Amino acid sequence: MNAIRRLLPYVKPYWRRALVSLFLLTSLVFFDLSIPRLIQRVIDQGILKHDTAVVLQTSLIMLSLSLASMIFAVGNSVFSIQVGEGVARDLREAIFLKIQTFSFGNLDHFTTGKLMVRLSSDSAAVQRLVQISLRVGTRAPLLMIGSLILMINTDRRLALSMLPLLLITSAIIAFFSLRMEPLFRTAQQKLDRLNTVLQENIAGARLVKAFGRAAHESERFEAANEDFTDRTIQVMRFMSTMSPVLTIFVNIGMVAVIWAGGLQAIQGRISVGQIVAFTNYLLTTMGPLIMMTMLSNAWSNGFASWQRIREVLDTIPEVQEQPHAQPLPERVLSRVTFENVTFHYNGSTDGSVLEGVNLVAEPGKTVAILGATGAGKSSLINLIPRFYDPSAGRVTIDGMDLRSTQEDSLLAHIGIVPQDTILFSGTVKENIRYGRPEASEEEVIAAAQAAQAHDFIMKLPQGYDTHIEERGANLSGGQKQRIAIARALATRPKILILDDSTSSVDVETETKIQDALEERLGDSTRFVVAQRISTVLNADKILVIDQGKIVAQGTHAELMKSSPIYKEIYDSQLGDGFHED
Predict the structure, then answer these.
(1) CATH code assigned to 334-413+494-574
(2) Cα gap 539→553, rounded to integer Å
(3) ∠ CA 319-321-326 to the nearest 5 degrees?
(4) I need a labelling partner for 62 at 20 to 30 A (CA). Which of 20, 35, 364, 368 fits?
(5) What integer is the mean pLDDT of 543-561?
(6) How far is CA 288 from CA 68, 180, 492, in A?
C-alpha cells in the first residue's frame, strides 16, 4: 500500500483522463454482465416459447451493446495509454532531475548502467503497471463482483457451491503474485549488470581494441547476458505455470455447474436459460481470474521496478546546501584555506584519502599539486567546489566555510578542467559556452586564444561552428583538453582548477597556456594538478602529497633544497640535462 501511495502523486496530474478511463471501463463491465442475462432471455422467452420477436429484439440489443463495448474499449485504451505514458515521462524527468542533485559520493554508488536501467526499463515497467491497472486491473475485480452477485441472483445454491473454488483460485493468484515480485527484482538487478558491462565496453571500445581484449570483453558480456537470460527464463517458467493451474479450476467449475445444474433442470428446479446464464457468469467470474495472471505479472514487475526507482528518488545527496546558506560576495578575493582537513570516501573511516591537510592559497597565486598516482591530489581539489565534504576540518573561501555557502554562488566563481576531458555533442562554440551560455563571440574567441585552441579551431571545416561528435571523437586528445580549458576560462573564474589538464599537450604549448592564464587571470587563484614536473616549476607554491598528507610545500627552489621526494621526482623526469634559466 505504501508503494501505491508513493506512486499516486505521479498519476494525479492525469486524474481527469484516469477517471474517464475508469468510467468507460465500468460501462464495459455493465455491458459484459448484461450479455448472459440477455442470452437467458433469448433461450427461456424466445427459443423455448417459439417467440421470434423476442429473439430478434434481444439479438439487436446484444449487437448494440457489442458495438458500444467496442467504442468504449477503444476509448478506455486511448485514455489509459495517455495516463501511462504521461506517468512514465514524469518519472523519467524526476529521475533525471534527481540525478542532477547527486553529489559525487552518490554517483560513486550508482553506476551508469544502474541509472540507465532505471530511466528506461524500470520506468517502462511502471508505465505498463499504470496502463494495465486502468484496463484489466479495474475491470477484473468489477467483473468478478458483478458476476458473483448475478450468479447468486440466478441460483443461490449453485452460486454458494462455487465459492470454495473461487477462494482456491484467488489464493493461487495471491501466492504467485507474492513470489513473482522478488523474482522480477533480481532479474532487473541482472539487467543492471548487463547494462554496466555494455556501457563500459562502448565507452572503452578504443581501449579494448588497442589492447586486443575483444575476446575477454565478449566473455564478460556473454557471462552477464547468460546470467540475465537464465534469471529471466526462471521468472517466465514460474509465471507460465499459473495460467494452466487456473484453467484446470475453471474447467472443474464448468463441469460442476453443468452436472449440478443439469440435475436440477431435469427435476424442473431451474431452466435451461438459467443454466446457460449461470455458466456464462461463471466464465465471467473465472475469466478475470485468468486476467489476473497477466495483471499479477505486470504488477509484480511494475512494483519491483518502482521500488528500484524509489531507491534513486529517495536518495539523499551527500552534499546538501544548508537552510540559511549565504552567497559568496560578488567581489570574492578567492583566498582558499584548508584547515586540518581529513577526508574518507563513502563515509568510511578506514584508510583516509586525505589526513590533516593544512593549506593557504592566496589570491592571484598558482598552487601546484604534485604526487604519485593515488596520493590524493584529485581528492583534495574536489573539496574546493564542494563535490565532497571533508570528513573532518573545513575548507573556506575568504573565511567562509563552504558548507555554509550557496552552491550556485560557489560554483559561479570556480572554473574546472577535469582530469577526464568531457565534451558534449554540439558545436565547438557551444562547448566553450557551456559554463556561461551568455558569453559573447569575442569572449569565446578570447578564451580559445588563451587556451591555445584558436588556431586549430580555425582550421576545422566550419571553424567555431564545427560539430563535435560524441565524446569529442573527431578531435585529438590535446585538442579536447584545450577546448576544455577554454570552456573554463569563458566563465571568468575567480578560482581555476586544472586537474592534470595539459597532459596531452606538448611542453611548448603548455608554457604558452600558462603565460596566457597568468595574463588573463592574474587576480584569480589557480590550482594545478600535474604529473609532469615541468608544469609546476613556475608555480608560486608547490605541494608534494604522499599518501594523503602534504609532506612538503614551497617554491621550486625551496623544495629542491628541503624535499628529497620532490628532488627525486625532478631528477627522474628532467635529470641533470635540464638547465634552469
Answers:
(1) 3.40.50.300
(2) 11
(3) 140
(4) 20
(5) 88
(6) 21, 19, 66
346, amino acid identity = N
In CATH terms, is domain 15-313 a member of 3.40.50.2000? no
- Give start and end residues of each alpha helix (H) in 318-440: 377-382, 407-412, 428-432
Q: Supply the mean pLDDT for the chain.
A: 81
Degrees (nearest 5) of the Cα angle 477, 483, 488? 125
In CATH terms, the fold of domain 422-492 is: Rossmann fold (3.40.50)
Residue 581 has pLDDT above 50, yes or no: no
Which tens digits make up the pLDDT trace of 422-480?
888 889 999 999 888 898 999 999 999 998 999 999 988 899 999 988 777 788 888 88
Residue 111 backbone class (left: φ over 0; alpha: ψ -120 to 50; beta: rest): beta
Which residues partner with 415 through β-bridges? 496
d(CA 537, CA 558): 11
Sequence ranges of the domains in the chain: 15-313, 334-413+494-574, 422-492
**Residue written as cell 564542494?**
386
Sign of CA dihedral 296, 300, 303, 306: negative
Q: Which of 347, 402, 345 is nearest to 374 (CA)?
A: 345
pLDDT at 290: 62
Closest CA to 273 of 41, 461, 576, 17: 41
Contact 96, 59 (CB under 8 A): no
Q: Give 512's contacts (C-beta < 8 A, 6+ positions apart).
A: 452
Instruction: Give the largest CA-CA distance in the chain.
Output: 121
Residue carrying C-alpha cell 597568468: 518
Residue in the structure block whose three cell numbers are 521468472? 235
Task: Say how many CA atoms lie within 13 Å of 132 toward its Cβ.
Answer: 20
Contact predicate 12/246, CB 8 Å:
no
Contact 46/54 with Cβ under 8 angstroms? Answer: yes
DSSP-based three-state secondary structure for 401:
strand
Judge if 15-313 and 422-492 fold alike in CATH terms.
Answer: no
What pLDDT is attached to residue 383?
92
Q: Which helix (H) or strand (E) holds 313?
A: helix 272-313
Q: Are 529 and 378 in contact, with CB atoms under 8 Å apart?
A: yes
Which residue, among 321, 325, 331, 380, has the nearest Cα to 494 in the 3D structure? Answer: 331
Cell of 39: 442470452
